[in-house]
Amino acid sequence: MRRNAVAALLTILTVLVSGCASLFWMGEKPRVDIVNITPKEMRLLEQTFLMELRIQNPTDKDLEVNGLSFELEINGQPFARGVSNQSAKVERLSTKVVQVEAYTGLTSLLRQLSEARKGSYTSGFTYRLRGSVHTGAPSFRIPFDETGEFK
After folding, report:
1. Could you say which of 2.60.40.1820, 3.90.190.20, 3.30.360.10, 3.30.420.40 is the CATH number of the domain covering 25-150?
2. Which is the most buried residue in 4, 134, 147, 151, by most CB within 10 A?
3. Which of 36, 30, 7, 151 is nearest to 98 (CA)?
4. What phi and psi values does residue 148 have, to the nearest 5 degrees?
5. Closest among 66, 57, 69 to 87, alpha carbons compared
6. What is the chain's mean pLDDT, rounded?
7. Which of 51, 137, 135 is nearest to 85 (CA)?
8. Any idea what DSSP says for residue 60?
């Protein structure tokens, strides 16, 4: 009876730890930066952009990526979102460029165009890219939050 209780407790503990693995990520987190953004499809209510993102692996172990989810802000305003189920292996201490699609709505696009007309972007603009790198383990995501400038 006692052996069954210990086995059940170990099973529950294993499930909890694997399910919350991203909460215990202790290594250096990967960096995800924007390399390029290209308009892909422009419809009235939704616009699609092709984004190239550079994933940097600063750790001494290979990083198996099986997806990304992200949100892009421009000058502090929400602009686009995206997900990708693209797999990539980012070898230790290296980078890999992946292409993903990002989607934005008419309101976000009009807001940015309005700011551009006011001259807000004459010296460039800032961006914030945040989201998660999904790895091969179930429910294991490594969050990222990067900022930068385009001039």
Report:
1. 2.60.40.1820
2. 134
3. 36
4. -170, -175
5. 66
6. 83
7. 135
8. S
